Structures are given as structure tokens and as C-alpha cells.
Amino acid sequence: MPVTAAPDLQAIIDRIAEEMAGQADRGKVADYIPGLARVDPKHFGISIATHDGKMYSAGDAAMPFSIQSVSKVFALTIALGKVGDSLWQRVGREPSGNAFNSIVQLEAEHGIPRNPFINAGAIVVADVILAGHQPKEAIGEILRFVRQIAGDDGIMIDDEVAKGEAETGFRNAALANYMRSFGNIHHPVEQVLGVYFHQCALTMTCEQLARAGRYLMLEGQHPDTGFNVISPMRARRINALMMLCGHYDGSGEFAFRVGIPGKSGVGGGIMLIVPGIASIAVWSPGLNDRGNSTLGSLALERLAVATGWSVF
Ligand code: DON
Fold it and tell me: Which of 6, 9, 65 is nearest to 293 (CA)?
């Protein structure tokens, strides 16, 4: 179906939000990060920022949630801005086919993570952002970047979530130490993890997240300033990585069902980019067995059908 902007987006997402409210199977809220375990699985929100500057929202779109791994897209953008394509000597660009926190491929692959969206890859990206900074400055840089692309200075980091994650992040510590043994982490592991945990603890609403994704819909251009956040080629490549790796070992299934590049997080958020058309954020905290939002995925599948949006 040709990609066209649907005229009745508000009606479509109102209907989807209503359908989601009636869903019995909402998945399971992530409980390995203390701050996330308390979130009510009943929530569902969706926002769409379109290429012509409009915003459509339904459900709990104004409620802040922990964006978790969706932040890996923004961190990757910053790291590429710092070191360019040399980043790819330290991180791969292939789907892992394994869980987001898996360690198994690192041994045979010499400490080079498969892609920047699995935890190991994102920890290397955090190490790149940390270069030349104190951890607090690196965290500040990430926060400033996200506020700038969203055009919203109200975006915050939830220190409690970051702290809870530091206290329970034994796997991430294992990944970082293991990669350091191969020379692929250059800074002290506690500092790198501090940056990574704070980036994951960014708290945003669906509206803020949909706004933050707009540069990826617009070939790298910031819609509010007209300046390029990144080049068109880089925006396309980040979208390509989201398509192939954005949902970990559920990426094939998500591409099959939705057909649009997206990035998920264990907070239940998904950012979805329809190139040239829309930047979308959906949030529902219950997760499927791959760690991706159950209702978020279902809602986006229905949205793709209703609008005819697809990159294929
Ligand atoms: O490192 C972690 O486990 C979390 N901060 C982020 C994981 C995440 O969101 C994976 N996404 N589905």
C-alpha cells in the first residue's frame, strides 16, 4: 500500500486506545528494576507527531514513564556525532537473535557487541559518550540533547530508577567488565554504567518521546530549528538499525507485524519512525516474553493496518 498521511489519525488512535483498554492479556511489568515493578499495567498511551507539525494523542499520552532502552537511539546519535563511523570498529550492526542482556556472543566475537541496541552495545556507546567528560557531564550532555530534539526542557532523569538499576545491575556489570577485558571499554566500569543507567532512567511522556523522534522522520533535520541534528544518510542508517535490532530477539516478529522501524524499552515504551510521515510513541508497561510492550506492539500493528503506513 502506498505510504500516505491518513486524514483521520485522531479517530484511529482513539479507537485503538479504546480497544487496548479492553485487552485482557497485557503482559508482565518488568520487575528486575525496582522503580519499574510498581507501575500499573493498566496504562496505555499513544502520540503521533506528523511531518506537518501536528500532534495527535490518546490515552495516557501525557503520563511520564521510564524510556529505558529507547534512550539507546539517542545515545547512538550522540556517539556517532562524536566519533563518526569509527564507532563501528567497536560495535557491530547485525541482529543478535539473543535476549537484550545476553553475554554469550561476546566471547567468540572478541568483546565486540552485535549492535548498539543490545545492552552490551549500549554500554560501549556510553563509554564513547563518557570520553573527555566526568560522568555527570556525560549524563548532562545526554539530557540536554534529548531536551533539545524534543524541544522540551521539562524532560527529566529519574534518579531513583537509575539508583535501583545500579543496585541490581549485575548482568550489565558483567557485560561491561567482560568487554573491558577485551579492551572494548576504556573508562572505569562504574562510571560507564553510571552514564548508561542514567540514560535509561530518562522519564518522558508519549508526547515528548514522539517529539524527540522527529529528526529521524525528517532525514536528520530538527523541525523547530531547521538545522541538521545528523545527516540524512545517518538518519536512514539509524532507522535501518532500529528495524533490524530495535526489538532484540523479537525484531523479526515486530518487522513482520508492523513493518516500520521501532525501538522498545522495558519500561513499556516504543518509539516508531515512519520516514517522511510520522514519529510515534506508544506506552503500555506490560511486556511480552522478549521484553517488548505487549499492547504497544499490538497497537502499532493496528495503527499500521489502519493507516497503510509501512516502509515496504
Ligand atoms: O539495562 C537494562 O536492563 C535496562 N536499563 C534497559 C533494558 C531495556 O530497556 C531492554 N529493552 N527492552
Answer: 65
